[in-house]
Automatic annotation (TrEMBL):
It comes from the Bacteria. This is Beta-xylosidase. Residues 27-520 form the Glycosyl hydrolases family 39 N-terminal catalytic domain. Belongs to the glycosyl hydrolase 39 family. It comes from Asticcacaulis aquaticus. InterPro entries: GH, GH39_as, GH39_cat, Glyco_hydro_39, Glycosyl_Hydrolase_39.
Length: 554
């Protein structure tokens, strides 16, 4: 239960019961008069392996929540959009039957299911980050005895997702024509101006054996022909890639060289159109001494290396970058002890702490970071809070989604902010620190100030709460400022805790469902107004471990 905390200034903030350990002090300083640069909304990208969930009840509900964050500026990336099949969703699988061939080997195009998926996005304010893949069965060069569809399920080895779907085309001209016809159809259905806002990229993680069974050169060729198909239909289309696993190693080096100075397999010209570059970055949590210990250091190190690699290519150093999958670990469909953090506030505090460092790394390397894509959506009709990496379970939002709602309230301009409790970037990159990371970001939108504060720790254990004193400067001539607080912590905006208190029912009735839905909502709380003297004010608050709060001061 919340209680009011008496403050030394003119503010009373909400606090939670003290942890068993003694609290520790943190001082945060924010200067609203000192702009440090624009803050791009890089958080507005999401994705999932399973494209067909977008047309199902819970998928559509969640897409609506994503679209509300920043209408028509949120993007969704999905695998398996060109796979052969009847459109039935399954773990790490999807299909649309977009391409088959008749008995004479002539192409048959069917856009019904791809249209349903894209319609589900657009109807809810979300736009496609359109992944061109994987290989339709009739175009696959896989051995004849190779099953086309995989039969992977949670618990199986990850590499067992292989099948005929992840092979190069047996006919590159037909592959290009497929991409051309799909792009042409999308222009006719959705309009040229709409399709110009989309991102187009080819395949997923072609540098690893799970998603690509060809050579690097065969991927460059597959990529070139697909991009040629997009550009033939829409010359101004935004194209890029290659969405490699990690920073890409020598594969990425070869790809960057190819798109800059190699001979284009489809056109014979030098290089391949590249409007953005994409790589993936993941953390590495593990289960130690009875609890989850996150591995943010690995996540950030990959981002650091990926930025370095792109910045080192003169022709591409200013190209927009999308971290096409950016997550605490690798497999969204894999539950287990080490992934148990996903349901609660470890995932939400990790998100706040990691995004802040990714923004910081982009500034350090002076790269053009455009997007950080969270590879998490929902798994339809699965057990409640099963431990999958998702944003909602059975239509009920998880705490992590509320951090993105906080991001949506940030202003366009970053302002100077520092915290005595924030772990330095280089230390976060090097190792599991085990330290309490009480960090801050702040923005301005006209006279409105937003202050985002998180209390993160690599270890999913209870710990001391942070007693935070926030010193605000540059507030202008107004004598008072209103303050609104948004909060996510173990007891607030957290349906998982409420579900546990219910006894963890696997079939909540309609009344319980309404309670869970209400518990997931992050409610604004109006705090007492700040008293401003010479443009300055202070406030005190308490933030428990793995809590995240946003203060809107206006």
């Amino acid at each position: 239960m919340r209680k009011l905390l008496t403050l030394t200034g003119a503010l009373v903030a909400l606090a939670l019961p003290a942890a068993a350990q003694e609290s520790f002090p943190v001082t945060i300083t924010v200067d609203a008069a000192k702009t440090t640069g624009p803050l791009k909304p890089v958080w507005r990208f999401f994705g999932a392996d399973e494209p067909n969930y977008a047309t199902m009840k819970d998928g559509q509900k969640l897409l609506g929540h994503l679209g509300e964050l920043k209408p028509k500026q949120v993007y969704f990336r999905a695998h398996n959009l060109l796979n052969t099949g009847d459109g039935t969703a399954a773990f790490k699988w999807g299909s649309t039957n977009a391409y088959t061939e008749d008995k004479d080997g002539k192409p048959v195009y069917n856009w019904m299911i791809t249209d349903m998926i894209i319609d589900s996005y657009l109807d809810r304010g979300v736009r496609p980050y359109l992944q061109i893949g994987f290989m339709p069965e009739a175009l696959s060069s896989a051995p004849k005895d190779m099953p086309y569809r995989h039969s992977w399920r949670p618990g199986f080895r990850y590499e067992l997702i292989e099948g005929g779907w992840n092979y190069p085309p047996n006919d590159y001209k037909k592959w290009e024509e497929l991409v051309y016809q799909w792009t042409k159809h999308n222009i006719e259905k959705y309009g040229r101006d709409e399709v110009l806002t989309w991102y187009f990229e080819v395949w997923n993680e072609p540098n690893g054996p799970s998603y690509w069974k060809g050579t690097p050169e065969e991927f460059y060729k597959t990529h070139d022909y697909a991009i040629a198909g997009v550009k033939r239909a829409l010359p101004e289309a935004r194209v890029g890639g290659p969405d490699v696993a990690g920073s890409g190693g020598t594969f990425m080096d070869g790809f960057l060289k190819h798109v800059v100075s190699g001979t284009n397999y489809a056109t014979g010209q030098t290089g391949t159109p590249t409007d953005f570059l994409a790589f993936h970055a993941k953390g590495s949590p593990k289960f130690v001494d009875g609890h989850v210990q996150m591995g943010m250091w690995n996540h950030l190190k990959v981002v650091d290396n990926g930025f370095k690699k792109i910045a080192a290519v003169p022709e591409l150093k200013n190209a927009p970058i999308v971290i096409g999958e950016s997550d605490p670990e690798g497999c969204a469909a894999c539950p287990g002890k080490a992934n148990g953090y996903r349901n609660g506030t470890m995932y939400s505090s990790y998100t706040a702490a990691s995004f802040a460092r990714i923004w910081e790394l982009s500034e350090r390397h002076k790269v053009n970071l455009e997007g950080v894509l969270t590879w998490a959506f929902t798994f339809e009709d699965q057990p409640w809070f099963a431990g999958y990496r998702q944003l909602a379970t059975n239509g009920i939002d998880l705490p992590v989604l509320n951090v993105f709602r906080m991001y949506a309230k940030l202003g366009p301009d970053a302002i100077a902010a520092s915290s005595t409790g924030q772990v330095p970037l280089d230390e976060m990159i090097e190792k599991v620190t085990g330290k309490n990371d009480v960090g801050v970001m702040a923005t301005r939108d006209g006279t409105k100030i937003a202050v985002l504060v998180w209390h993160y720790n690599d270890n999913d254990l209870s710990g001391p709460e942070a007693k935070i004193n926030i010193k605000l400067n540059g507030l202008g001539k107004a004598k008072t400022r209103t303050v609104t607080q948004y909060l996510v912590d173990p007891q607030t905006a957290n349906a998982y805790t409420t579900w546990q208190k219910m006894g963890s029912p696997q079939s909540p009735d309609q009344d319980q469902y309404k309670v869970l839905e209400a518990a997931s909502v992050m409610q604004p709380v109006a705090l007492p107004a700040l008293s401003v003297t010479k443009g300055a004010a202070t406030l005190d608050l308490t933030l428990v471990r793995q809590g995240v709060t946003l203060l809107i001061i206006e």
